[in-house]
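Lecture 7 notes: from sequence to structure.
We start with the chain below.
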Amino acid sequence: MDVEILAFECETATDVVCTPPFVNELFETPDVFLGINRAMLLMFLAAFIVIALLYFALRKRPVVPTKFGAAVEGLVTLVKDEIATGIIGPQGAKYAPYLISIFLFILVGNLFEITPLINFPITSRMALPAFLALLTWVIFVFAGFREQGFGYLGHIVWPKDVPIALRWLVGIIEFVSIFLVRPFSLAVRLFANLVAGHVMLTLLLVTGYVYIVGFSNATFNGVFGVLWWVLALAIFLFEVVVSILQAYIFTLLSAVYIQTSVHPEH
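Predicted structure tokens for the same chain:
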């Protein structure tokens, strides 16, 4: 569980509910050393894990692959063939390295939520989903201008397949959607799902702990604590699915946005 929220002092003898003097203390991450905090360390760890997975799984491909190699190669093939090439088309091969990288990085970062002694998804910090969404935005906008020139912007603000009386309105909607809404929704979708699961797991586990330890002398409280932990286990398994699904959705939408820039007719 993320115990950073307990960094402030609390007078347990008089306070029924332990609250910080400033609400931002609930969200601040203390520095570990030299200005590097826990979230930053976990980001580097996620990147290192992705590099190690790809290196050790794909550097040598035996005739009969190991289970580890087959699993990693299956994930890479999924993103390369089903997402990159399958959605973008033949041009998707050059975007495959980026899509593979963000898929694995987000997947590892999400799974930190259910990793013992970590229990903290790095994507529950808005800065990371926002950065990845901005990176995807830069790529698909750059791809649009590279493939179509300034016609890319012209097709957006003045769509020729729309009745002329409505082109200005549809153009404004499309401009706002592509250049503002897409990166925002891409970031918020990933952030909201992971932070919700993280908070839910933390509340369930802490509540169970409080029932068992804090009220151990009260009748049936130990039973209630175990029931809270059983519910947390169910949510734990659900969060495994959410972690995988959100990494897939982020990568899938990134490919779709690139495809609409490369092939505007679609």
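Points to note: The longest strand covers residues 31-33. Residues 167-214 form the longest helix (48 residues).
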